[in-house]
Amino acid sequence: MLLQLFGIVILLICIYTVRHYCFTLNRIMGKQRHPYIDIDTADWPAVTVLIAAHNEEAVVADIIRALLEVDYPKERLTIVPVNDRSKDRTKEIIDSFVEKYPDRIIPFHRTGGKPGKAAALKDAMAYVKTEIMLVFDADYIPGKALIRQLVAPFFDPEVGSVMGRVVPLNVGKKLLTRLLDLERSGGYQVDQQARMNLHFVPQYGGTVAGIRKCALHEIGGWNENTLAEDTDLTFRLLMAGWKTVYENRAECYEEVPERWPVRVRQIMRWAKGHNQAMVHYAASLTRRHDVSWWERLDGLLLLGVYAMAPVLLLGWVLALLLFYTGAPIGGGVAVLGLAAFTTLGNFAAFFEIAAATRLDGSRLRIRLLPFTFLGFAVSLISVSRAAWQQIIEPLMGKEMVWHKTERSRIGPVAVGRPAA
Amino acid sequence: MISVWAPLALTAATGGMLALPLAPAVLEILRRKDAGPLPTRKDDGDIRNFARSFRRYMDPLRAPIAAATQSNSIMEARLPNGCYTLIVGEGGLYPLSEQRVETMVVFGKEISLLEQLTFMQDVYAADVLYGGRNNVFRGLLGESDIYLAEGTHVLRWLHAEGQLIVQRASHLHTRCSSEKAVHFSAGCSFQRVFAPLIVTASQAQPTFTAEIIAPEKPAKAARPLPRSRVHGNLHLGAGEIFLGNIIATGSIRIDQGTRIFGSAKGNGDVLLGANTRIDGSLISTGSIRIGPNSIIKGPVLAESEIIIEPGSRIGSPSSPTTISAPRILIGCDCVTHGTLWARVEGRVEE
């Protein structure tokens, strides 16, 4: 029994290893797809930009200022800051902008209702009068061309949502921010773009992103009962025949967590939300014959990403058990087998990060690669803990709580000029 | 004595070997040589940015240009950065004999260039410029019309405030734009072109201004159209009318005279018959062939190739658009409003 379970673990790790290597090799050697990047002249549609803001006094002014300066027809761009029950100066800051630009900013001050970003966005839909809407978290700083880059794919009638690339701004602050910068590079520069290249399932990430309103309406709107509305939306759109596309050159600065406890809470929330989506959609996705075979396979692997952390821990425990119980294949072989596969599995992800830094053209940050193991270990434990809580908490009658990521920014950031 | 030092030496050596691979990482953490955010795109992507920055670069020469033009003379001037510039204040035929011009050149008046001239630096034309056969320009900014004769090569960029007329077998290797119109003759090649009006013809001719600026009545704000998704290949018969956006998971074939009040997307090749009209965009993950005398209002994008047959019209004056594919082949008597962007090769066919 233990042996069979161990075999399944090794098989799963091997599958994810192959996936990582395929993505990385595709990015290094494959044909790159950027089908919408050249649309620079068009009859640009009217767009609403939603800024999700919950206690964002440290950052909300920067994003509004940046959005007021973007290169998009002013009369076709409406900015809707969604002030979700903030208890700090967020409302005051937003209103000061509304006073200056009453025709460009329509604020939505939400004072009650269910907590969480999806619930706030759901209520904000009453303010969205356009067919295309873009969503940003309040700590993001869009560049001048970003709105057009995110809107361009919507000329394709098959596109339901668009995802841009997230680039950390506060990289140099701590070791954690530097590790997250490497992780983001791997995730976007390699993972997301490879999925785009291969016609797989790029993920809608909930920020630096766009959605077609009729597509959202068709799939039943925002799901406020999830901790990861982005993953939830990706899969509902996929199963309804809408494409999510990734725009690697639609880059936007964000603030990454600077403290480990904040990072742990963030990744635990992502893990729980992602696992919720896995439970809801994995079975129905496999049955969708109108979704291509490759999309279904990639979709399933994407859904299972956060479940792999506890699987890996389980594998280590099983290997030790097999070793000490003297299993027929020999405990030493078992340990060696798992070690080999986990090394490959884990280091496939590091290979991905290394490839991403090369593609980004940054040479020296690659030296930090050995330390990414530290981030990996923290994530492994946190994600496994999240999975454990997800199993235990419903039995204890606890509801899942949405934790907002704390911001560390002090003072305004110059638009288009990153802080050193 | 040896027994005391041996374990210490072994520990030190082992520790050193373990720490050595981490040394670059530790050094990077301490020295923070690459700790800034990755650069992101800051410009607005406008094709005319080169021309604008070149014009700003030329600003200090305004007075010498005016002086040379008034005195019908040829002057030498230096920019604040020490760059040497030749200012030609005479109009008419280009007066210099060298076939290879190594310096930046400014033409203050209407000028006609000789054949076989090569300009190694950027050229600024304050008035109309008539190029000679087989001229080679590195970069060219014209404040009025520019006429490029047969066999011209533009290597880096070109912008005309007036119209740009390009004669046969000319090659615009990178970006090229005009505030009014670009006229291509057959046999020309291009990469990225922007103008309110782009016309292809067997022999390019300038257009009257009134014809260029005549705007269409702007369309009313469109309501979202219904979407139809077809599994497999799609075929619309001749003269059919379709209301809404249509998507095929396979290829699309549309016969002549069909009209789509919406956009069309094929996950394969798309073939349009003659006199087809599409009010939205036309997208393909493969190639697109647009039949003669067709009209497409929105962007036309293909991931491999676009062939536009003679007499077709893409975009409109009030609603300019983009045609983009690695390879674009465009027939004569076609009209495009907006951008033509061929990453690998763009060519005007006979």
**Taking strands numbered 1, 2, ... along the chain, how are they ordered across the largest sheet of chain A?**
3-2-1-4-7-6-8-5
Beta-strand content estimate of chain A = 5-15%
Q: How many runs of DSSP E, i.e. beta strands of chain A?
A: 8
Low-confidence stretches of chain B: none
Number of helices of chain B: 5
> Given the helix and strand composition of chain B, which structural class is it?
mainly beta
- Portion in beta strands of chain B: 35-45%
Tell me the name of the CATH homologous superfamily of the domain at 36-259 in chain A: Spore Coat Polysaccharide Biosynthesis Protein SpsA, Chain A
**What gyration radius of chain B follows from the Cα positions, in whole Å?**
28 Å
Q: Sheet with the most strands of chain A?
A: 8 strands, mixed
Instruction: Measure the end-to-end span of chain B.
Output: 94 Å
Rounded to an integer in angstroms, the radius of gyration calculated over CA atoms of chain A is 22 Å
Second CATH tier, the architecture of the domain at 36-259 in chain A: Alpha-Beta Complex
The percentage helix of chain B is 10-25%
How many separate helices of chain A? 13
Q: Largest protein interface? A: A-B, 54 and 57 residues
**What count of domains describes the coordinates of chain B?**
2
